[in-house]
Specification:
Blueprint (H helix, E strand, L loop, with lengths): L2 H5 L2 H4 L7 H4 L5 E2 L27 H11 L6 E4 L1 H13 L6 E4 L6 H8 L3 E4 L10 H10 L4 E7 L11 H10 L5 E5 L21 E6 L12 E5 L1 H10 L7 H10 L2 H25 L5 E4 L6 E6 L2 H10 L2 E2 L1 E2 L9 E5 L3 H12 L2
């Protein structure tokens, strides 16, 4: 072991980093592995103030997102993607070496990575057989932890299975865990099914936190802009911990344009197209002999279980189509996640599958 490795914290020495789509890589011309939008809008930038630090919370995007989410400005915090929100929540509410978060696998991997990086424990309550949240088991785990579990992360639409949250059961969980733990609903993909948002519960539940991003439906993965939605008391605590300039000036300019009336119209039009492409793909692949299961269609992705995912993944790679392989994840054997792209990209995907 090198001297530098020995200097690092033991939790970091043992840490396996999150393998993002870009870290995994791949070779091809059709990229369907990172749940990115297939198009990008044009934006204008004013570079006359790049010599100045940006506002801590740029009012132009806080005001715009408050209007969009129908919340007050003091109920919002903007961050460098939703990933920073996850980390700041853990750093704000969890004591290292004492507290834990709770996750419900299979789910988004950054919850656990962020906790481990901060020296915070990770406890699990598995999703039910149909991949819905086991609310009773989550409640029992929090109440039995004697204050150890401080944050529960629930992803909805769940990445990668697509399952949503039951609002009544979520409200009951929030009431049961009030004053004991935060319940975080990760709504990174909620624009693709806005009727399922949990924002209307924020007013009555201080321990509800919602994370959002502009990376998916807004087609702005590159600028790293996310939002935390919660009661003002939660936002106030997080604001103590987050970096002093979390949103670069150019990012704020682009985000404000994306959240304008014209920008929102473009986003909603994109959602209509992608949701249609997703349904067409889901209907088509469900008829193929190589497919055994198609998971819920809620986000801008489709999780599919194949008879032999290794053969399918190789066929995609041979045809220059880069997908996300989940076959090595528990309970997701033979599963591949397909990002929803253009009609041409979906047709190419189907042609590869039909040729097997």
């Amino acid at each position: 072991m090198s001297n530098i490795i020995k200097l690092a914290r033991k939790t970091v020495q043992a840490l396996t980093p999150y393998l993002s789509a870009r870290r995994i890589g791949g070779r091809g011309d059709v990229w369907l592995n990172a749940n990115e939008a297939p198009d990008c809008s044009d934006y204008q930038l004013d570079s006359s103030h790049l010599n100045r630090y940006p506002e801590f919370q740029p009012p132009q995007i806080i005001n715009a997102y408050a209007a969009y989410s129908k919340l007050n400005t003091d109920q919002l915090l903007t961050t460098r993607g939703a990933d920073e929100s996850i980390e700041v929540l853990i750093r704000t509410f969890c004591e290292a070496e004492l507290d834990s978060i709770l996750i419900c696998p299979p789910t988004y991997g950054m919850y656990a990575i962020s906790a481990e990086t901060c020296g915070v424990g990770v406890e699990q309550v598995a999703l039910q057989d149909n991949f819905d949240v086991d609310y009773d088991a989550v409640k029992k785990a929090v109440l039995d932890s004697q204050g150890r579990i401080k944050i529960v992360f629930l992803c909805a639409p769940n990445n990668p299975t697509g399952n949503m949250l039951d609002q009544q059961k979520l409200a009951e969980l929030l009431t049961a865990t009030e004053g004991k733990a935060l319940i975080v609903a990760d709504e990174a993909y909620i624009e693709f099914c806005p009727e399922f948002t949990q924002t209307n519960l924020i007013a009555s539940h201080e321990n509800l936190v919602i994370t959002r991003t502009l990376s998916k439906a807004f087609a702005l993965a590159s600028i790293r802009c996310g939002f935390t939605l919660a009661q003002a008391s939660v936002i106030e605590m997080m604001a103590k911990v987050i970096a002093p300039y979390p949103v670069p000036g150019p990012v704020a300019q682009i985000a404000a344009q994306a959240l304008s009336e014209d920008g929102l119209e473009i986003m909603r039009d994109r959602v209509v197209v992608l949701n249609n492409n997703r349904q067409v793909l889901a209907n088509a692949v469900s008829e193929l002999d190589c497919v055994t299961e198609v998971f819920p269609t809620t986000g801008n992705f489709l999780l599919v279980r194949f008879k032999d995912s290794a053969q399918v993944f190789k066929a995609f790679a041979d045809d220059g189509i880069i997908m996300r392989d989940f076959a090595n994840k528990p309970r997701l054997e033979n599963c591949i996640r397909i990002t929803i792209g253009t009609s041409e990209e979906m047709n190419k995907t189907l042609n590869t599958l039909k040729a097997l």
